[in-house]
Amino acid sequence: MPHLLIESPQLPPLPAEVEGVKFLFKAGEMIGVESGNYRYFLKLIPKGENRYLLKYEKKTRPLLKELKKGYLAFLQLTGAQIIRENISGIKEKPLSPYLKKIEEDFSDIDIVEIGFGTGRHLIHLAREYPEKTILGVEIYNPAIEQVLRRVKVEGISNIRVINYDARLLLSRIPSNRLEAIYLHFPVPWDDKPHRRVINRPFLNEVFRSLKVGGIFHLRTDSENYFRYTLEQLLTYPRIEFQTRKNFNYKTISKYEERWKKLGKSIFDIIISNWEESPPNRQQWEFEFEERLCNWSFKPLVYDRFVIHIEKVYPMEGGGELVQGSIGAFDRVERVFIINKEKPYYFRPPAPIEENFLAHQELKRVFRCR
Ligand SMILES: C[S@@+](CC[C@H](N)C(=O)[O-])C[C@H]1O[C@@H](n2cnc3c(N)ncnc32)[C@H](O)[C@@H]1O
Q1: 114, 135, 253, best to mutate for ligand 1 pocket (most atoms within 8 Å of CB)
Q2: In ligand 1, which atom is closest to the CA atom of 137?
Q3: Same structural domain for residues 137 and 67?
Q4: pLDDT per residue over 344-369, tens digit each?
Q5: Is it the case that residue 198 has pLDDT exceeding 80?
């Protein structure tokens, strides 16, 4: 973790700017920084005898290059002396241009694969459909890094990858867009069914994002998961799907190889979407109309989201910096609210419905009147 131990910083009143780095405000140990397109926090933590540890807040960390620039600007601004540092030796792995972020646009995606693991099928799809853009969704970082390495080495240009929970990601895809969604060998979660990728809201999103004639392909070794999915599907008033048992498929994943050796059966469900869906909402306004009050630090748990206010720092010069976590259970996000006459998020939450619902509720619960 890149940080510095410094001595005698003399922080002038903020805001102040050095070499294009803006130091916006100080609230407790937190210093709000803006540089280029980044907003992040530096933390100035007292270590006794006029010494301070200067580090960054993890959830808002910018690229290392920006962070180093921020540290240097801070030293220049405050005239602090370095006692010890570990930033010079740290190098950052370059970011792949194919790694997507949730706030980006997804309207060019044609095919989605959920939980691609080693990426065998994802890469196969990219080769089979060179004119299509294929998005791989995974929550396991090593799998993402491995696929991005292969994409680079093999010069594949039509794969995009995102580290996100697939149950939330689909809401970013415009309606009637996708030609196919693949879910191969999902974790069956027999002991914790609420963690399964397939559930009714997820299936609704599958139908919404598929174009008419588009398909959703579940392939699983778990008869239980197969039956569970069938049950979910049969609750729809009108639906078209095909089931298969022990049919070969054009690729064999690592998991399939293993199950086949063990003599397990493999099940497929292939659903075709027959219905056009209304457009979905892509823009969410995370705005506040008035100052917030009455903070309570107990997590508030709702059906689809949680709200947890963690810390409130008084800001020098008035107002509060409020640190909290909001959003879907499987993807709670750290947020910072600058609570002044017209409050705002230091960085807006990801544009997904669960975050918006949590935001609305947060405004209601912490109204001043
Ligand atoms: C059993 S592996 C199967 C991997 C690959 N599809 C195959 O057939 O070899 C399940 C994969 O799904 C990923 N996964 C689990 N839950 C997920 C979720 N909610 N969203 C995206 N990926 C998920 C896991 O990280 C894991 O890589």
Answers
A1: 114
A2: 21
A3: no
A4: 999 999 999 999 999 999 999 999 98
A5: yes
> Does the CB atom of residue 196 touch ligand 1 within 6 A?
no
Residue 218 tokens, joined: 């579940």
Q: Six-digit token pair at 282?
A: 């892509």
Crossing angle of the two packed helices 223-234 and 200-209, in degrees rounded to 10? 70
Q: 187 C-alpha vs ligand 1 centroid, how far in Å?
A: 7
Which range of residues forms the domain containing residue 141? 111-272
Taking only the tens place, the pLDDT of each residue in 228-255 is: 999 999 999 999 999 999 999 999 988 8
CATH number at residue 140: 3.40.50.150
The Cα 39–Cα 14 span in angstroms is: 16
Same domain, 199 and 264: yes
Whether 181 is in a domain gets the answer yes
Split into its structural domains, the chain has a count of 3
The three-class DSSP label of residue 254 is: helix
Q: How far, in Å, CA of 363 to CA of 111, rounded?
A: 37
Please tell me if the CB atom of residue 117 comes closer than 6 angstroms to any atom of ligand 1: yes
**Structure token digits, residue 203:** 């299936």
**68, 261, 265, 342 from 257: Cα distances, Å:** 47, 6, 12, 58
Q: Kindly state whether residues 115 and 57 are assigned to the same domain.
A: no
Residue 15 in 3-state DSSP? coil
Q: How far is CA 14 from the centre of its chain?
A: 32
Give the pLDDT confidence of 251-267 residue by residue, as tens digits.
998 888 888 888 899 99
pTM for this entry: 0.89
Q: Are residues 335 and 218 in the same domain?
A: no
* pLDDT at residue 95, rounded to an integer: 83
Residue 97 domain-assigned (yes or no): no
299/362 Cα distance (integer angstroms): 11
Q: Provide the residue type at 323 as one letter.
A: Q
What one-character DSSP code corresponds to residue 315? B
**What SS3 string covers 190-206?**
CCCHHHCCCCHHHHHHH
- Using the atom order of ligand 1, give the atom closest to the CA of residue 197: 19
